Amino acid sequence: MRDVSLNSNRPLATAAAPNELAWLDDPAIAPTLVMLQAGSLRAVLAPAVGGALAAFYEVTPEGPLHWLRPATSAAFTERDPLRMASFPLFPYCNRIRDARFEFDGVAIDLAGNDTRFAHALHGNAWRHPWRVGARTESSVDLHFEHEPDSRIPGDWPFRYRAQQRIALSGGALVITLSAQNVDDRPMPFGMGHHPYYPRTAATRVHADVRAMWHADADVLPTHLGPHRAVDALREGMSPDAFELDNNFANWSREATIAWPDEHRQLTMTADAPFDHMVVYAPADDPQLCVEPVTNTTDCFNAVGPREQVGGCVLQAGEELAATVKWTPQRG
C-alpha cells in the first residue's frame, strides 16, 4: 500500500455504457440468469457463476444507470465471479496465509484449492454454482451446500450450508447472507460480499472507520493502526488518494460511494457481525471495491482481540445470518 497522486494520468472508468449489458440478450447466457425488478430498479443474478450478482442498475430514459460495475461477457464464458458486479464470500473473506491454519489442534491445509493464488482466497462458495430456490418478481433465494471431498486438494474440510436472499425492496438492494454448520464438529467461519463500483475521477468514498490493518507485500495484515486513509474516508476519500487493498476495523457499518459530478450516491449499510470493511482501490486500475465482511484478512491466523480480528466459530448445527443493503439516491 502506497500513496499515489490525485493527479494520476491513468485512464479512469466511467459508468458502464448500455451495450455492456449485451449479455442479457445472449441466448447462451440469458436462460441462466435471474432478473429481479421493482419499479425502475433491476438486479440480475448469475447463480451458475458462484451465486454472483451480475448487475444492479436503474432503468432511465437515457439507458441503464449502473449502481455497481456490471459483469463482462467474459465473466460468463469463463465463469469468473471476479468480473461480476459482486459475489458472496463463504466460509471466510479474503486471504489465508499460505493456505494453512490450525484449528482445534488440527492443521488445516487449503493449498491447491486455486492455483491462481499463492494464498487461499475468499473461501470456496464463489467457485461453485448455486441452486435457485423460492422466487418472486423482486426477490430470490440462492442456496449452496458444501460436502467435503478428500480427493480434492485443499477442499474446505467442514460441511456447511449457505444461502443468499436477494431482494429489491424499499428502493434498495437487500442481501441477507446466512450459513449453517451442518458438520458434527465446530467450524471456523466468516462471510461477506464483494461489490465492485463504477470508478471515475470524481468518485468519493465516505465511511467512519477506527483503524486500518496495514499489510505486507502479499496483502496480508501485519498490524492494526492509524493511517491517513482513516481520516480521508471520514471526509470523503478519492480512490486515487492511496493505493489500497486493506481491511478497516470497527467501522460504523455504513459507507457511501458518491459521484458528486453525477449528482448521485449509493449508501451501503450492514448488520453486525459485518464489523469489518475492505477497500480495494489499486493504482492505475479502474477497479473499486468497498466490501462488508465479518473478518479481517487471514483471521484464522491473526493474533489480536476478537473485535479487531473478527470471524467466529459456528458450533455443530449453529446458524448465522446478517443483512447488507445498498440504497441508491439521485439528486
TrEMBL record:
GO molecular function annotation: aldose 1-epimerase activity; carbohydrate binding
Taxonomy, superkingdom: Bacteria
UniProt cross-references to InterPro entries, sorted A to Z: Aldose_1/G6P_1-epimerase, Gal_mutarotase_sf_dom, GH-type_carb-bd
Alphabetized CDD domains for the sequence: Aldose_epim_Ec_YphB
Enzyme superclass (EC): isomerase
Record-linked Pfam families: Aldose_epim
GO biological process: carbohydrate metabolic process
EC number, as in UniProt: 5.1.3.3
Keywords carried by this UniProt record: Isomerase
Name of the protein in question: Aldose 1-epimerase
Organism: Paraburkholderia bryophila
